[in-house]
């Protein structure tokens, strides 16, 4: 146990965590030259394509240092704010963290928030100044920022380049010297905290855990304390590049367990595993509940796939503890699920993973935050779907969620950012100069204005020199109204949105225009109308299609005709028929793209 070190790598997005993980894996010769590839731990296709880490990834490395053999359990974590729940769970399995800061960018919003997460768990912080090879690197200035932020000595900061392999040996030495060995009682009753899980269609569910006390042996009978269920530990092992079976996993270590569990509901991330022959008195404190920020419906494109979609959601949830959902019905779309996400990127990733990993084709409806609605009968409703909003004359008051936002930027962009935040109904609370040229702005803002396109706009107006982090604050009264959309006179609940009254007219008008562009023309005319209560506030028309598409092929050869039909069929992906109108996925997101 004295020779184990558990640590994670935390940083703002793109500061070089995954690249640094690669170098550590290389240096410790954890994988062969042949197996080595860039961003080795980002093993999901989606992560590689997008160049971002979505999941935390654990890997065990052996390291010989000063004549001693060490086991280093490394967890690479995501940087994007939508995945901070992944970071917080990883942190719970570690005693130390490498805080990576890009020497050309300096401290950013998620550098600070992830640092606080780590300090909250009393982790030993090793500051790493990365990318010192870049011509634009500002090692002196950024070192000052780091010293200010964490109160360390300048000499504690390790200068590194993950790309060029500079500073890697120093980092490994610091991991061994500065990060404490895990604590716990090797002879105590076994307690393993589940911090992740994966569904594997051949072997059932694999749970990943950190041992706090005692040990577990292959074949032991175990109990999951929250669910009360009992299993045999058919296979246990450690996470090398592949899973490597072992006979025993001891205190302080990180391992996996396979016990033939087939249904996703049986496993809960944050649960404690104990051994039946010597039950632990209590469970380890699990994780804080996730607080979803954005809600949207997810519906199968093919209504007959509802049950399949449910299974897919259960399996995905195993590997994405931040995803929450419950069944819902929409008048327009039938049976589906109301889901809660940590942000728009999270929502996008869930949709993509459902399609790639589970072969589902789904429609996501207009996203919304959750409102507190008090009815005239004094009932308190939590409303996250426009269809749940009571009629205006039944509403006493509505409260909307607010967040505290921190934006770090260069002083030259402050004016433009202030204007953007005010447009989004933000209230400036404070501004702090971090250095002469970098400033932190603190705003209180309605969550509904931030979750959708705010981040993109912030990036655009600051040319990328602004980073954003936010925390949930609470509810405040807001003058919100439901904006209904009707197609040929019929309300389409899945297209409605809840918006601030001041913006409702403008939005209604633009939403109709946008939908006119997005709805494919059909054999008949489509009237698009926006309404608040009984009052129609905007109207657009999609003209009827004049010619049959196939008419174009008149006299043409059959293969061309087939190709055209194929093309149409492909276009049908992610479309839903509502009444006699076909609505493509983009139409449900139109409300997000109005500005
Ligand atoms: P997320 O996981 O998405 O938060 O990103 P990350 O922090 O893991 O960053 P990643 O390792 O993917 O690196 C981001 C980019 O920076 C990549 O293009 C890397 O090649 C580059 N990069 C990482 N380290 C260095 C470095 O030391 N020097 C230079 N010049 N580039 C680096």
From TrEMBL:
It is a peripheral membrane protein. InterPro entries: EF-4, EFG_III/V, EFG_V-like, EFTu-like_2, LepA_C_sf, LepA_CTD, LepA_IV, P-loop_NTPase. It catalyses: GTP + H2O = GDP + phosphate + H(+). Its EC number is 3.6.5.n1. Gene3D superfamilies: 3.30.70.240, Elongation factor 4, C-terminal domain, Elongation Factor G (Translational Gtpase), domain 3, P-loop containing nucleotide triphosphate hydrolases, Translation factors. It is an enzyme of class 3 (hydrolase). GO terms for molecular function: GTP binding; GTPase activity; ribosome binding; translation elongation factor activity. One of its GO terms (biological process) is positive regulation of translation. Residues 2-183 form the Tr-type G domain. GTP binds at residues 14-19, 130-133. Keywords: Cell membrane, Elongation factor, GTP-binding, Hydrolase, Membrane, Nucleotide-binding, Protein biosynthesis. It is found in: Cell membrane. Belongs to the GTP-binding elongation factor family. LepA subfamily. Belongs to the TRAFAC class translation factor GTPase superfamily. Classic translation factor GTPase family. LepA subfamily. Required for accurate and efficient protein synthesis under certain stress conditions. May act as a fidelity factor of the translation reaction, by catalyzing a one-codon backward translocation of tRNAs on improperly translocated ribosomes. Back-translocation proceeds from a post-translocation (POST) complex to a pre-translocation (PRE) complex, thus giving elongation factor G a second chance to translocate the tRNAs correctly. Binds to ribosomes in a GTP-dependent manner. This is Elongation factor 4. It comes from Siphonobacter curvatus.
């Amino acid at each position: 146990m004295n020779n184990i070190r558990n640590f994670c790598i935390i940083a703002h997005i793109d500061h070089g965590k995954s690249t640094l993980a690669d170098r550590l894996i290389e240096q410790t010769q954890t994988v062969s030259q042949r197996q080595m590839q860039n961003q080795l731990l980002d093993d999901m296709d989606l992560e590689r394509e997008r160049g971002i880490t979505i999941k935390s990834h654990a890997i065990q490395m052996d390291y010989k240092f000063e004549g001693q053999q060490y086991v280093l359990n490394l967890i690479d974590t995501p940087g994007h704010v939508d995945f901070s729940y992944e970071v917080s769970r990883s942190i719970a399995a570690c005693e130390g963290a490498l805080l990576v800061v890009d020497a050309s960018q300096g401290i950013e919003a998620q550098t600070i928030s992830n640092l606080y997460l780590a300090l909250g768990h009393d982790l030993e912080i090793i500051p790493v100044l990365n990318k010192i090879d870049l011509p634009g690197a500002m090692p002196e200035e950024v070192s000052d920022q780091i010293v200010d932020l964490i109160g360390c000595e300048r000499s504690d900061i390790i200068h590194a380049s993950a790309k060029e392999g500079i500073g890697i040996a120093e980092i490994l030495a610091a991991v061994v010297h500065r990060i404490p060995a895990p604590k716990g009682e090797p002879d105590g009753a076994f307690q393993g905290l589940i911090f992740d899980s994966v569904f594997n269609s051949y072997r059932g569910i694999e749970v990943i855990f950190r041992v706090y006390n005692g040990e577990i042996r292959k074949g032991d009978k175990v109990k999951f304390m929250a669910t009360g269920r009992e299993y045999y530990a058919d296979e246990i092992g450690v996470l090398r590049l592949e899973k490597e079976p072992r006979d025993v996993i001891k205190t302080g270590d990180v391992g996996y367990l396979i016990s033939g569990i087939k249904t996703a509901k049986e496993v809960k991330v944050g649960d404690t595993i104990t051994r039946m022959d010597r039950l632990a008195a209590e469970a380890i404190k699990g994780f804080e509940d996730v607080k979803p920020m954005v809600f949207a419906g997810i519906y199968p494109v093919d209504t007959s796939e509802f049950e399949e979609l449910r299974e897919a959601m259960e399996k995905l949830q195993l590997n994405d503890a931040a995803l929450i959902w419950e069944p819902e019905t929409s008048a327009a779309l039938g049976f589906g699920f109301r889901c809660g996400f940590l942000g728009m990127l999270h929502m996008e990733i869930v949709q993509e993973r459902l399609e790639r990993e589970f072969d589902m084709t789904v429609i996501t409806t207009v996203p919304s935050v959750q409102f507190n609605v008090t009815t005239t009968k004094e009932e308190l409703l939590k409303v996250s779907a426009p269809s749940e909003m009571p009629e205006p004359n039944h509403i006493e008051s509505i409260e909307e969620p607010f967040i505290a936002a921190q934006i770090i930027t260069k002083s030259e962009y402050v004016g433009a950012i202030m204007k953007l935040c005010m447009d989004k109904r933000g209230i400036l609370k404070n501004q702090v100069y971090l250095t002469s040229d970098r400033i932190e702005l603190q705003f209180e803002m309605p969550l509904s204005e931030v979750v959708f396109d705010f981040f993109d706009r912030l990036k655009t107006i600051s040319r990328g020199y602004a980073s954003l982090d936010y925390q949930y604050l609470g509810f405040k009264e807001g003058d919100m109204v439901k904006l209904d959309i009707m197609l040929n006179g019929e309300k389409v609940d899945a297209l409605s949105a809840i918006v601030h009254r001041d913006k409702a007219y403008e939005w209604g008008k633009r939403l109709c225009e946008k939908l006119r562009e997005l709805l494919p023309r059909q054999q008949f005319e489509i009237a698009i109308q926006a309404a608040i209560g009984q009052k129609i506030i905007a109207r657009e028309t999609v003209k009827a299609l004049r010619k049959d598409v196939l008419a174009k092929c008149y006299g043409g050869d059959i293969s061309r005709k087939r190709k055209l039909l194929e093309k149409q069929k492909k276009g049908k992906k992610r479309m839903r028929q509502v009444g006699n109108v076909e609505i493509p996925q983009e139409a449900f997101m139109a409300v997000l793209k109005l500005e």
